């Protein structure tokens, strides 16, 4: 995997810490991944011929249009989209879910939607905004059960029109059997929507299996979570359902004809991509997916499984840190690990210690999945009320969240060792706690400057 690691832009970055300059370790891949160096270099050349797409008659217009249109085709090919599917470019998964929720509301205004307790807020809040939702709760092992989904579908007796569920959790790394979920949803007359933000970067995913009953109807994902952090993503699915009576955002590119008293809307996907699209973002996404395929995605998955096993083995030696969720992980689960500290230290302070003293980037908090983390942390109703008040008051030193380390195939065993060693030091109290002051979003050392370039 050395070749792939060298293709990660900035993999060899060094950063200033309280203990001198250190090699930076990036364990926040679930939030956003770095770019591929090879794609970044390709984009530098492509941008020399940048132009707006469609309708232009110059060479650069043809150049950009051709690459943009090919990018859409490749994204659909990569994800095994069907003949009746289309792909709408969006800026990220969140926009994709919101766009789809509004379209679905226009088609099925009285529908009931099943949403899982495991889901990220981006696949929860849009559905709560527009629909009457039914919760699909996790079991005692923090996982979703298909038997329970079928019970809910039976209880609702045909009222459910959509099952919206994450393909994989951004908190625990637990994956869900998306095609089996699709089969059950279809059995009871419902569509299925998969939030692919975490699943697609870690597991080769196809919307189809060869069995029509198992087809994923709709799916959204973000490019910035799959090594293309340039503001793009896609919503894929049945063009007949995605074609609302009129676009949500209207303007240039969304029409075929406009008169003072008449509008003829464009076909999909144009009608849902108002204005000038993120052309470089779409092209870089397709190039990135193609590059990952060239490395053999199955081998990348295998490498990640090896790192996950190594992490669990090393983490088990810690005394005061506990992994959240089911201890019996499977090879289908991927390398995202959330854990809590059995002591008085705030998770935000621990994350800051790792950053400022060890040069390790992790994440702390509730990871935009409050209902799921509340279940994982065994919060009572009183606990939740207390947590809510602390969040409102920004009392970070008292906030009971977790720490998350999210790995990728380009990480190494040596980097895991550095993290575990740093956590052991924190267990022993070997850190400079007196240096830190509480800021709005993190704890930061006094009189410390990251030396961020004054570019803006």
What does this molecule look like?
This protein has 15 helices and 19 strands. The protein is of the alpha/beta class and 456 residues long. A seven-stranded mixed sheet has the order 4-10-9-8-7-5-6, sandwiched between helices. The longest helix is centred in the N-terminal third of the chain and has 20 residues. It is globular and about 70 Å long. The two termini are 36 Å apart.
Give a topology summary.
Layout: H1 2-6, E1 14-17, E2 20-23, E3 25-26, H2 37-46, H3 59-78, E4 85-90, H4 93-107, E5 112-116, H5 125-130, E6 132-136, H6 146-156, E7 160-166, H7 178-187, E8 191-195, H8 199-202, E9 218-222, E10 233-238, H9 239-242, E11 255-259, E12 262-265, H10 279-294, H11 297-315, E13 321-323, E14 336-341, H12 347-358, E15 360-361, E16 363-365, H13 370-376, H14 381-393, E17 402-406, H15 413-427, E18 436-438, E19 443-445
Parallel strand pairs: 3-15, 5-6, 5-7, 7-8, 8-9
Antiparallel strand pairs: 1-2, 4-10, 9-10, 11-12, 13-14, 14-17, 16-17, 18-19
Distance between the termini: 36 Å
Helicity, as a percent range: 25-40%
What is the arithmetic mean of pLDDT? 93
Count of structural domains: 2
CATH architectural arrangement of the largest domain = 3-Layer(aba) Sandwich
Tally the helices: what do you get?
15
What would you give as the CATH superfamily of the largest domain? Type I PLP-dependent aspartate aminotransferase-like (Major domain)
Which class best fits the helix and strand makeup?
Answer: alpha/beta
Q: Major sheet: order of its strands?
A: 4-10-9-8-7-5-6
Low-pLDDT runs: none
Query: What is the multimeric organization of the chains shown?
Result: single chain
- Radius of gyration, in angstroms, nearest whole number: 23 Å
* CATH topology call of the largest domain: Aspartate Aminotransferase, domain 2
The major beta sheet can be summarized as:
7 strands, mixed
Look at the structure and give the CATH class of the largest domain: Alpha Beta
